[in-house]
Amino acid sequence: MSDLRYTLVSDGSSDEALLPLLNWLLRQNRVSRAIQAEWADLRRLQRPPKSLPARIQWSIELYPCDLVFVHRDAEREPPAIRVAEIEDALTAAVKSTAVPPAVCVVPVRMQEAWLLFDEAALRRAAANPNGRMPMALPPLADVEQRPDPKGDLHELLREASGLTGRRRRRLRVRACAKLVTQFIADFSPLRTLPAFSALEADIRERVAEHNWAEA
Asked: Which pTM value belongs to this model?
């Protein structure tokens, strides 16, 4: 049985944190073969493409795959608008390269909203797994409505670190944030969130369409 290779196309390097989450969703939807996951790092190109169709094209050519995930944060737009933008970009990219099956990854606001629920993972990402300082995690039902999930995540990581004063201010929260998903074993609590549920439904559909599930 051949491996399943996928490539994640996104806006920035912080989105590489989505790979463990996407791996988990594929496993949950009965993909048992080995998974080769790549985040498309286009920064090494002399002139990194700026438009989404060009980024999709270059990502597929540099990181050949069986499945492509295209991530855009909804930010202040309705998720349906971002999905339409991705679908238009995929249609445009087809004119220049062979595009494999695709899945849109569109968190409400931004992907950091999906990292605010696991206290143990936050403590481990902040290099303080045995910390006992109270942490003010937002209610899970509210995370997709938070105005600044990235700011929330960074502040939670500072709390989780247990550091104070200058050491707390100097904590490399961006680096810590990229580690959070590596310490989350179970993303199932996110299934109560509409955007995450929609992502899983799309993955399930692609897996079924292309017979990637175990028998």
From this structure: 0.94
